[in-house]
Write a structure and sequence with these properties.
single chain; 339 residues; mainly beta; Tachylectin-2, Chain A; five-stranded antiparallel β-sheet; four-stranded antiparallel β-sheet; 22 strands; globular; disordered N terminus
């Protein structure tokens, strides 16, 4: 396999993973890993550090922290690398940052609204040429254009077979559709697309349309010759759940017909374990690369007073992924907290 175009550091691909299928003892984590951090993104780098970023409840800044183990992320220093603008674009709703190492540079893909129009949500990019993303400096590279202007968020990126892709969430070009879909496109550079977007999934099942018609927050895991793309659906309360698309790794990923969509959620609320609305996940591995890890947020109560977006208690959690005999992931159910 060659990852020669906008490829990641050798041996590590932040948004997705090629890992062995060796059976090993399943790790257990002291959940929640990080309190009041939603939309978590974790990348294990060749330097042996786990780098972590997530949405802060104030929606006003981007933090990056690192630790040698996932359990230590909550105790690690939260380094503020960027703050929202007082005016204009990138001035509100700073959401869902993802940290990626591409061709020797760091990139932060994130979502932001305007200070004067907070729901004019778009995708933006920061770039850092330093080896240390905690220190920076970070440069603003502006809006990542998707081909049309509408509510857009939750960008992730991955490389496969020498090609880098962007996957993101956006309202469709048809302005009368009040829903969010997930799209994919090839990238020309880490800051731009190479061609038009392909619609991958839209909210069609009942469990994807509770209160709001939502498909958002894509994350990619590559293993066993397949591409597994998880996403989150419905309102950001106890109804929030993960769905999944699957394609062959050698398929044309820009062909919607190459993807198969799960008809049921693959990860959802567990009242028995006190975990509500799990979603907006990322993937990482144990340090030895032998066990895949699902990192996600969830609350530990069902009932929310007021707007769920103003409730700060979406906490970052993690648990191992197991694999079925047919080579597909089994995410299980959200495990109970284990402080």
């Amino acid at each position: 396999m060659r990852l020669n175009l906008f490829s990641c550091a050798a041996g590590v691909v932040p948004a997705f993973f090629f890992v062995c299928g060796v059976a090993c003892a399943q790790p257990a984590f002291h959940n929640p890993l990080v309190t009041q951090r939603a939309d978590p993104h974790v990348t294990l780098q060749p330097d042996g550090w786990y780098y972590f970023t997530a949405t802060v409840p104030e929606y006003d800044r981007i933090e990056v922290r690192r630790a040698r183990s996932l359990d230590d992320l909550g105790k690690a220093d939260a380094n503020v690398v960027w703050r929202k603008h007082a005016q204009g674009e990138m001035g509100a709703h700073i959401w869902a940052p993802e940290l990626h190492r591409i061709d020797g540079k760091w990139y932060l893909y994130f979502t932001a609204g305007r200070a004067d129009a907070i729901w004019d949500i778009r995708l933006y990019v920061l770039e850092c040429g330093s080896d240390d993303p905690l220190r920076g400096p970070w440069l603003e590279r502006g809006q990542l254009k998707t081909g049309w202007e509408s509510f857009s968020l939750d960008a992730t990126t991955f490389a496969l077979n020498g090609q880098r892709y962007l996957v993101w969430t956006q309202r469709p070009p048809e302005g009368d559709q009040h829903q969010t879909n997930i799209y994919i496109a090839k990238m020309a550079t880490p800051l731009s697309l190479a061609g038009p977007a392909t619609l991958l999934t839209e909210p069609e099942y009942g469990w994807e349309r509770v209160k709001y018609a939502v498909n958002e927050a894509p994350a990619v895991l590559v293993k066993n010759g397949r591409v597994f793309l998880t996403y989150s659906a419905s309102a950001t309360d106890a109804n929030y759940a993960l769905g999944m698309l699957t394609a062959r790794a050698d398929a044309n990923l820009l062909d919607r017909a190459a993807w198969t969509k799960s008809a049921q959620p693959v990860f959802a609320t567990s009242a028995a374990n006190g975990q509500y609305g799990p979603g907006h996940n990322s993937f990482t591995t144990t340090p030895d690369g032998k066990t895949d890890i699902l990192v996600y947020h969830a609350r530990n109560y069902r009932d929310i007073v007021g707007d769920p977006l103003r409730d700060p208690n979406r906490h970052t959690r993690a648990q191992p992924i197991t694999w079925r005999p047919d080579g597909t992931p089994d995410f299980g159910i959200p495990v109970a907290d284990k402080p």
